[in-house]
Amino acid sequence: MGKQEDYVLRALEERDVRFVRLWFTDVLGFLKSVAVAPAELEGAFSEGIGFDGSAIQGFARVTEADMLARPDPVTFQILPWRGEGPSTARMFCDITMPDGSPSYADPRFVLKRALDRAAEKGFTFYTHPEIEFYLFKGVPDAGAEPEPVDRSGFFDHTATSAGSDFRREAITMLEAMGISVEFSHHEGGPGQQEIDLRYADALSTADNIMTFRTVVREVALSQGVWASFMPKPFTQHPGSGMHTHLSLFEGDRNAFFEAGAEYQLSKTGRSFIAGILHHAAEISVITNQWVNSYKRLIGGDEAPTYICWGHNNRSAMVRVPMYKPNKGQATRIELRTLDPACNPYLAFAVILAAGMKGLEHGYELPREAEDNVWELTERERKALGLKQLPKSLYDAISIAEESELLAETLGEHVFEYFLKNKRVEWEEYRAQVSAFERDKMLPVV
Q1: For 282-370, where are the E strands, in sequence order?
Q2: What is the mean pLDDT of residues 224-248?
């Protein structure tokens, strides 16, 4: 065993840890957990913990069910919400087959593989998400509209704000787990919050997002409220996005920065944006994976609708933030399509793959969108060559089915399972009779 494993085993004794939760995600991005006693951990490091992969969404068929969860000691953290007394810790796992080879179905491996391909070109991929979510009074009843915890708006500060108390406790827990928070504030919708995580390498960020969603839900439950990362819970209020800042580094140098270039953005940065735009429609099924995701991408409320980029233009799909003098290391781009209900491992993998295609094939960056694209007419958008993002999950699936980029990045197993699952979701949605239809038709037809 290495130094990191030894550190974990010592920490178990020193911190009186009685249970260790081994975390991993299924293909759709739902967190899975198996608890082991500390005495079993040394064996888990060397041999892994066996489990039935056929019981996990998208992992394996019954005939190839045996899999191993191998804890990553670098991700060891004490869970701060377990209170006084004996502690509970967690570690993320890599999933392998019995022979030790990586599982083709493990989303964490999908991202690692994409990061390795970028590393072969000399690049490290960094991400910094701004995560939005809603807080509701109690668990919403099926079929009923949820009730937000407040009626505040963007950046509002109130003396009796449930949101500010919640954010304070959530941030305290996140930082106790080694997850640095950069900003937090009330968002535009009633009960809507935003917490921004500090930038980190993409694998650490994906792990942090999975931890973030768990911490937020735990804190909400402890305060008698309900947290939801649903992309668009209300018709009349803004959806929840996960605007994510992206950058590539070559060693310690920001590959997106070039002094004196337009917006201080290098050719590498411009080609990376071009790659994301070129493949935007086909990766939408991953970055926006739910039927409800496309209720958010209808324009306005800072959610993108068209495939375009712009300097400090919040109506664009990709925004180049304003350059700050002597802050070349902070040069980055912001992708605004992502929502907080995605699988972050798969989402970062396909975004990186799209950007790298731009570099490898020298994609040219199209003309910048300087206007508010939501306010342009259809003729004006057509003259600018603006194409629309998929309008529904059905459209996204149809485009994704023909995508070589997705098949190559996700691997055959994840690619086929994911799209099969999404087709089932669409058919279930299509068969539902909505309140909109009843309200419109029952009185008149």
Answers
A1: 306-307, 309-311, 318-320, 333-335
A2: 95
pTM reported for the whole predicted model = 0.94
Helix (H, G, I), strand (E, B) or coil at 33: strand
C-beta separation of 405 from 346 below 8 A? no
Q: How far apart are CA 420 and CA 110, in angstroms?
A: 18
pLDDT confidence tier of residue 63, bands split at 50, 70 and 90? very low
Closest by CA position to 115, among listed 200, 183, 194: 200
Q: Report the chain's mean pLDDT, rounded to a whole number.
A: 91
Better pLDDT: 50 or 372:
50
- What span, in angstroms and rounded, lies between the C-alpha atoms of 245 and 334? 4
Q: For tokens 């919040």, name the residue.
A: 314
Under 8 Å between Cβ of 363 and 278: yes
Helical H runs in 57-161?
107-120
Residue 342's pLDDT band (boundaries 50, 70, 90)? very high
Is residue 262 classed as helix, strand or coil in its secondary structure? helix
**Interatomic CA distance for residues 125 and 202, integer angstroms:** 6
**The two structure tokens encoding residue 288:** 């926006």
Q: What is the DSSP string of 272-294?
A: HHHHHHHTHHHHHHHHS-STTHH
Q: What is the dihedral of CA 346, 351, 353, 357, to 10 degrees?
A: 160
Per-residue pLDDT of 366-422, as tens digits, reads: 988 877 787 787 788 787 778 999 999 999 999 999 999 999 999 999 999 999 999
In angstroms, rounded to a whole number, what is the distance separating the alpha carbons of residues 378 and 387? 10
Q: What share of the chain is helix, strand, coil (3-state, %, to 5)?
A: 40, 20, 40
Dig out the tokens for 189 from the structure: 């919708």
